[in-house]
Amino acid sequence: MTTHTRLTNREVAAILAGVAARLQILDANRFRIIAFQNAAESIRTLAQDINAIDAAGELTSIQGVGKGIGDAIHTLLVNGSDPEFDALFAQVPQGVVDMMQVPDMGPKKAKRLWEELGIDSVAALRAAAEAGKLRDLKGFGAKSEEKILKGIELLAKRTERGDGERMPIGVVRPLALHMIAELQAKLPAGAIERIEIAGSLRRWKETIGDVDILCLSAQPALVMETFRTLPEVADILGAGETKSSVVLGNGLQVDLRVVERKHWGAALQYFTGSKEHNVAVRELALKQGWSLNEYGLTATGAGDAPAGEERFFEEEADLYAFLRLEWVPPELRENRGEVAAAQQHTLPALLTLADLQGELHGHTTWSDGVASVAEMAEAARARGYHYWNVSDHSVGLGIVQGVDGEKLRRQRVEIDAYNRRCAEADIDFRLLQGSEVEILADGALGLPDDVLAGLDVVVASIHSAQRQDRETITARCLKAIYNPHVDILGHPTGRLLGERPPTEIDMERILQACRETGTVVEINANPARLDVNDLYARRAVELGCKLAINCDAHSPQDLTLAEYGVGVARRGWLTAADVINTRPVDAMLALLKDAQRNAHDQP
DNA sequence: GCCGTTTTCGGCCCGACTGTTTTCAGTCG
Ligand SMILES: Nc1nc2c(ncn2[C@H]2C[C@H](O)[C@@H](COP(=O)(O)OP(=O)(O)OP(=O)(O)O)O2)c(=O)[nH]1
Ligand SMILES: [Mg+2]
Ligand SMILES: [Mg+2]
Ligand SMILES: [Zn+2]
Question: Which of A135, A415, A488, A554 is the most interior residue, by most CB within 10 Å?
């Protein structure tokens, strides 16, 4: 019996991060601080509910959670608070922690301003800087004040955007590609030998903190000068000999690093990250007697090579190979087991965009799509697909004109006619007829079973009453999953990146039910959704589920979004075998039929 | 505070850029 509300993974992670921040300000042991940061990050990126893990007594199985932090989390979950954490939170005000969000304001500066000038909020910091009160402090000058004011402005700009400082990959990626194209166009031919996106964008993370670009050039100064003067650049944060940092008008930061050829391999490895992956690889290198930085390896003397001996790598793969590691696809570089797998040479063969044979969720003018059935089919064929499931919305969705049984009968005629034309022209393409059937508030579906039975592939999803409590919305989806006509659970968590948090749905129970019934879990590739995300995708496969990658296209252009879904899948360690729409149409349909035959009654 | 195909103790990644530092700390990548 608990009297407090259940803490989410995100909330527990935030508390641990808050502890780490306060320990930083109090100048605690730096490894203790890192331990709390690591535990926070680990829990933030956990696919399973921390309460369930605690209930199973398995907290210390979480990477970075040992006895100390494990016990504290347990106390937190059971009592709603932990006395030692409470003391830390009472000791250092939130406002002082908030000050560390200001660029160039770290724990040391925040501590001194707090202790020596009593500044305990970003607002107070701004006032003091504007009044010129900071320059009296040793180590601070007029420039520091200026920088702090600029930093506060930048912070405000970043936080006024919905979700805070990170932007969805779907927004950032086109901007980054555009900047690279501009750079290449503005520079003389040959100035850029190689240029590549690095950082979280190369790893296809769903949100991007900043863009990182690596460039190989014999004229670094020219490249960076050109970069800093691109039209979209609003401000220059830093400009040194090897790297520059700028801010665009929309608040997005872009970092450029320029290197010479012999450093390319190590530099790309470094700049791709993640930080946690880099640390893991560098620790492994040390065990082999080599110190790794962004230039290459230097022997420490602890191994066979004499101390000071250097190794350089023109290609990233050469560096991994030297460390006796399989080359790690960037999407896996999150220190979630990939380094160990690379050592064993057991990394998964990740699926690729080219593996997709068709899609199973998309819309036409029969509901809220902007193109006809034939137009969408042509677009799908142009993508190299061999099938596409017409899954217009069912009735039950307020604003959208739904497709009922009668309309489906007429739509079937149109689909059959298109397929007949393909067959006559000997074209290996087939339209399927389905529905994106609404899971109504009580778990009933927006179409009757006898109508669903006549469809090829049924996607069930939620677009309304998304604020139901955890038990209600989970039971609602379970009911749909156990309907034998439902083939795919569409965008299961309902989140919209930067706009709407996921519903309270218990994904562990949902995924277990999907595995039980053979219901396929969707990776909705629309970059506003990316739902399920990488973590749930990986968990789904662990539990034995199959997945489908769908653009949920409402227009022909939307089909280009598939690459974002593939990014999620690869980050979830998925192979082609895990994703049903990598199969030819008949094999894919046979798989769904099998699941239907083996369907269980809902317990 | 966490962790272990060399360890249950003794490690824990490494460098660029900035400012006022007169020799390097702080912050960030
Ligand atoms: N070895 C090492 N590499 C780091 C560290 N911090 C950052 N890096 C590397 C790996 C990162 O992927 C890369 C770019 O840094 P960013 O701060 O931009 O991080 P990243 O792009 O991964 O995520 P983001 O979405 O920008 O927050 O630099 C560090 O502390 N140590
Ligand atoms: Mg970045
Ligand atoms: Mg960066
Ligand atoms: Zn849809």
Answer: A488
Ligand 1 pocket by Cβ (under 6 Å): A 199-200, 205, 208-210, 212, 270-275, 278
ipTM: 0.96
Domain A264-343: which CATH class?
alpha beta
CA of residue A232 to ligand 4 center, whole Å:
34
**Protein A119 CA to nucleic acid B1 C1', in Å?**
30
d(CA A14, CA A159): 17
pLDDT digits (tens, 9 = 90+) for A533-590: 999 999 999 999 999 999 999 999 999 999 999 999 999 999 999 999 999 999 999 9
Kindly give the distance from the C-alpha atom of residue A601 to the centroid of ligand 4, in angstroms, as a whole number: 27
Q: How far is A280 from A269, CA to CA, in rounded Å?
A: 12
Q: Which CATH architecture has domain A9-163?
A: Orthogonal Bundle (1.10)
The whole-angstrom separation of Cα A493 and Cα A475 is 14
Q: What is the 3-state secondary structure (H, E, C) of A540-554?
A: HHHCCCCEEEECCEC
| Residue–nucleotide distance: A446 CA to B21 C1' (Å) | 70
Indicate the pTM of the whole model. 0.96
State, as a whole number of angstroms, the distance between the CA of A247 and the C1' of B8. 48
| Contact residues for A379 (Cβ-Cβ < 8 A; gap 6+) | A371, A553, A556, A557, A559
Q: Which residues from 442-501 of A have any strand B atom under 7 Å from their CB?
A: none
Tens-digit pLDDT profile for residues A356-409:
999 999 999 999 999 999 999 999 999 999 999 999 999 866 666 799 999 999
Domain map (residue ranges) of chain A = 9-163, 167-258, 264-343, 356-601
Which residue type, as a one-letter code, is found at position A346?
T
CATH code 3.40.50.2300 for A167-258: no
Contact A572, A454 (CB under 8 A): no
Class for the domain spanning A356-601: alpha beta
